UniProtKB/TrEMBL annotation:
Function: Probably functions as a manganese efflux pump.
Domain of life from the UniProt record: Bacteria
Spans traversing the lipid bilayer: 6-29, 41-61, 73-92, 104-128, 134-155, 167-184
Signal peptide coordinates: none
Name of the protein in its database record: Putative manganese efflux pump MntP
């Protein structure tokens, strides 16, 4: 593991965690009396799915890697750019009124966790295409998401909801830049 790989995995983890951060901020805004154990439950669920979905994507990606090895970097680039742009667009949408929902209901919590982890599935798919190891990135992604989610709930009690949208835009930019880096490395190095 090189320092460059570590930094890349940290940036991917940060980029992917912005959706979970935004959801956590919303939870903090709506449930200002949230207890530490409840916050841990929400953060764990978000981190668990965020860490599991890349493994599923990686398994799919490694299974079809030999069929697409000559253009896998273009697929990884396209997927990360697509996710990044999608996140930027979501972050730029005007703030709507937060719906009143209970993030502690298991159905709601799992729904939020899955919804914020779809991007992680695609990143895992890219890892599989590029034949990258998965264990360390998954640990990093899950850990970063847990921390970001806990901070999001804490900040949700103290910051305006508008900032959560700005964090999604930043996450999208980070993922798009990582996709560009992957393409650049495969084309020129």
């Amino acid at each position: 593991m090189t320092i460059e790989q570590l930094i890349t995995f940290l940036l991917i983890g940060i980029g992917l965690s912005f959706d979970s951060f935004a959801v956590s901020v919303s939870c903090g805004l709506m449930k200002r009396e949230i207890r530490f154990q409840q916050a841990c439950l929400v953060a764990f669920s978000l981190a668990f799915f965020q860490g599991t979905f890349p493994v599923i994507g990686w398994l799919i990606g490694t299974g079809v890697k030999n069929l697409i090895s000559s253009f896998d970097h273009w697929i990884a680039f396209g997927l990360l750019i697509f996710i990044g742009i999608k996140m930027i667009i979501e972050g730029l949408k005007p703030n709507g009124r937060l719906q009143n929902f209970d993030p502690f209901r298991i159905r709601v919590l799992i729904g939020l966790s899955v919804a914020t982890s779809i991007d992680a599935l695609v990143v895992g798919l890219s890892f599989g295409f590029l034949d990258m190891p998965i264990l360390f990135p998954v640990i990093v992604i899950g850990s970063v998401t847990f921390i970001a989610s806990m901070l999001g709930m804490l900040f949700g009690k103290n910051i305006p909801a508008k900032r959560s949208h700005q964090s999604i835009v930043l996450g999208g930019i980070i993922l798009a830049l990582i996709g560009t880096k992957i393409l650049f490395e495969h084309l020129f190095f």
